[in-house]
Amino acid sequence: MRRISSGGIYEDKIGYSRAVVAGGMVHISGTVGEGAEVTAQCAAALATIKAALAEAGSDFAHVVRVTYMLPDAGEFEACWPLLRAAFGAHPPAATMIECGLIDPKYRIEIECTALLRAAAEG
Q1: Domains in the chain: how many in total?
Q2: For position 9, what pLDDT does the model report?
Q3: Residues near 92 by beta carbon (within 8 Å), at least 6 away in sequence
Q4: Spans of the chain below 50 pLDDT
Q5: Each residue of 22-53: pLDDT tens digit?
Q6: What's the predicted TM-score (pTM) here?
């Protein structure tokens, strides 16, 4: 098992890893991003996830499950073009949940599970 940190402020405060690689899978913790608009936060969260996936040996094409959490479900549609661009021809199974997040300034949180590239090819 391998743990990956992105240096996010909550990782140390709460005690979790950005990602854990285990059993041929990459488990990405809920990830938020900075920005004034939900789309900016979504783009920033996706960039953090992309970096964690790359460090683990995976990418968006190997994501099998994603969960989107938003305090206001009405803002989700604005993120669709970013999500479509990230996952392209390899859309994962997905769920969107309307819920409170750790800080009211956050408007979207994304978590996902992916196969390692090597595991997917084997």
Answers
A1: 1
A2: 84
A3: 63, 64, 65, 66, 112
A4: none
A5: 999 999 999 999 999 999 999 999 999 999 99
A6: 0.94
Phi, psi of 120 (to 5 degrees): -70, -30
List CB contacts of 12: < 8 A, sequence separation 6 or more.
none
CA pair distance 91, 63, nearest whole angstrom: 8
Tokens of 56: 């683990």
Nearest to 50 by CA among 60, 61, 35, 65: 60
Residue 88, Ramachandran bin (φ over 0: left; ψ between -120 and 50: alpha; else beta):
left
Domain that holds residue 39: 2-121
Question: What is the CATH classification number for the domain harbouring 14?
Answer: 3.30.1330.40
